[in-house]
Specification:
With 500 residues, the protein is an alpha+beta fold. Helices cover 28% and strands 31% of the residues. It has four domains: 91 residues; 142 residues, Trna Endonuclease, Chain: A, domain 1, CATH 3.40.1350; 78 residues, no CATH class; 150 residues, Trna Endonuclease, Chain: A, domain 1 (3-Layer(aba) Sandwich).
Length: 500
């Protein structure tokens, strides 16, 4: 019998039970109006909004949202009564069975890497091998961790046992360095695919010299049959690499239509300019876009591409409802912290607060120009991601700012890599010639790196990884208040690297 959801307690209980069910199975058969399709566990979710249970699911028509009014689980079928229809969710494969299969496959690749490494170092034997820790308890890790033993020394060997994109290099190197520190051995071997090689080498150059000399790098083919050692470059080699110049920065002027929308909630809405028009964000969350169509400015609004609509007389009420919902739920004073608007894009929210007054972080920074989501190169072929904020101090020193609002082990290495890319452009004069900071003089000195996170959200390994970075890269740790949505306050500021 279907269980009706008529009270907040029933809604909360249903949310807990259905969420646990969805996590238990990796794939579901979604049946609605006689049409069925397979959905993965990460494509379906339940949430509580305004004391109502809401189901979101990725369908062939895009992401759909429904209110759940009743539900039942009979051990084989999850039946949900929505506001206008009935749907059924049939579990396909148990998450535990898939996890066991994945673990076995990764363990085989781990054993193969161990054999290859032992073959390279004549006379060594495999003392121990295992997978790294998974992202969640019970899940298999993504990296092999092997200890080789010889008569004179022990060697730590690690490498991905799954296909890894270049953007995953910071996660891999962070995991490797932390494991290396725990093993207390003399050498660390990193075994990677050719796709991961270049971004890895760029980051190894940034490590302190004593640590870098302990690391050897190898590439391995897809079939895990051959290891090839690769020489690590020196820091001077970074500055010889060709990098594309920045195009001159044109003065951006906001359209009258965008300014009128900003005037609705000026303390929350900001404008991001692009080649194709303007994006309006509510505390960092994009909710409207202004584009020119046949010489006329038009507004498309909605959260996410699948819900975007043209603003006209027929959608005027929906537009005002969206603004009212944003005022209520994307606010520091919001009562429902589980609402999607409150939880979405938290780092963009923090960024939007600092964009309004970056001196809250450091009084020595100039307020404008301030470049958000700054790209030092086009595309992401080598795992290149935009820098959260690129700023300038009053004394002419460039500052790279990387923001986190939750624990992130990659924070330190990301900041160091952003430093490398900005420094390469600074040395060539690209930043000055592009007038990124107008007529202000850029000081002939390497940038500073500010790593910002709430006090209780700094990763426990932050200090250990900071000690791995060359002292020539000045990294500062900024701990801000946990309730940063009410206003950013710096609770502690210190240099991340201590004396070696």
């Amino acid at each position: 019998m279907l269980r009706r959801l008529t009270t907040p307690a029933q809604v909360e209980s249903a949310y807990q039970e259905i969420s646990a069910l969805l996590r238990e199975y990796a794939e579901w058969l979604f049946v609605c109006d006689g049409v069925s399709q397979s959905v993965r566990r990460d494509e379906i979710e339940v949430a509580v909004a305004q004391e109502r249970l809401v189901l979101s699911c990725w369908t062939e028509k895009g992401t759909r949202l429904w209110r759940v009014v009743a539900w039942e689980w009979n051990g084989q079928l999850l039946e949900l009564e929505l506001s206008r229809r009935m749907i059924q969710l049939i579990p396909r494969t148990s998450a535990k069975a898939i996890t066991a299969t994945i673990r076995a496959a990764r363990q085989m690749r781990c054993e193969r890497l161990a054999q290859l490494a032992a073959h390279v170092h004549f006379g060594s034997v495999v003392e121990r091998m295992s997978l790294s820790r998974g992202t969640k308890p019970g899940q298999p890790g993504r990296y092999a961790q092997v200890l080789l033993k010889t008569r004179r020394e022990r060697i730590a060997v690690t490498g991905p046992v799954v296909s890894s994109a270049p953007a995953a290099v910071d996660a891999f190197l962070s995991s490797s360095l932390l494991w290396f520190r725990r093993t207390s051995v003399q050498q660390l071997w990193l075994i990677v695919s050719p796709e991961l090689l270049k971004p890895l080498l760029y980051r190894l150059v940034l490590l302190r010299s004593g640590l870098k000399e302990s690391i050897r790098v190898f590439t391995v083919d897809e079939d895990l049959t051959l290891l090839t050692e690769v020489a690590s470059p020196e820091k001077e080699d970074l500055w010889r690499k060709q990098v594309a110049r920045f195009p001159p920065v044109a003065a951006a002027t906001a359209s009258e239509l965008s300014l009128a929308i900003v005037a609705e909630v000026p303390e929350a809405i900001d404008i991001v300019h692009s080649r194709h028009g303007e994006t309006l964000r509510y505390f960092g969350l994009p909710f409207a876009r202004v584009r020119s169509l046949l010489g006329r400015q038009k507004v498309w609004f909605g959260i996410g591409r699948t819900h975007r609509r043209l603003l006209d007389e027929s959608t005027s009420n929906d537009w005002h409802n969206l603004l009212n919902d944003l005022r209520e739920h994307r606010s520091a004073s919001a009562l429902d912290h589980r609402h999607a608007f409150y939880r979405a894009a938290p780092e963009a929210w923090l960024e939007s607060l600092l964009r309004r007054d970056i001196t809250k972080l450091d009084p020595g920074l100039i307020i404008a120009p301030l470049h958000a989501q700054f790209r030092t190169a086009r595309g992401a072929k080598l795992g290149i991601r935009p820098i959260d904020l690129l700023a300038l101090r009053q004394d002419g020193r460039l500052v790279v700012i990387e923001l986190k609002v939750s624990e992130d082990r990659e924070h330190v290495l990301q900041g160091a890599d952003y430093w490398r890319r900005v420094e390469a452009h600074r040395r060539r004069g690209h930043i000055t010639r592009a007038k990124l900071f107008g007529a202000r003089t850029i000081r002939d000195e390497a940038p500073l790196v500010y790593l910002v996170a709430p006090t209780l959200r700094v990763h426990p390994a932050f200090q250990t990884l900071a000690q791995c970075i060359s002292s020539g890269i000045e990294i500062y740790r900024f701990d801000i208040n946990e309730d940063w949505r009410t206003g950013v306050r710096v609770m502690r500021r210190e240099k991340a690297q201590k004396n070696f």
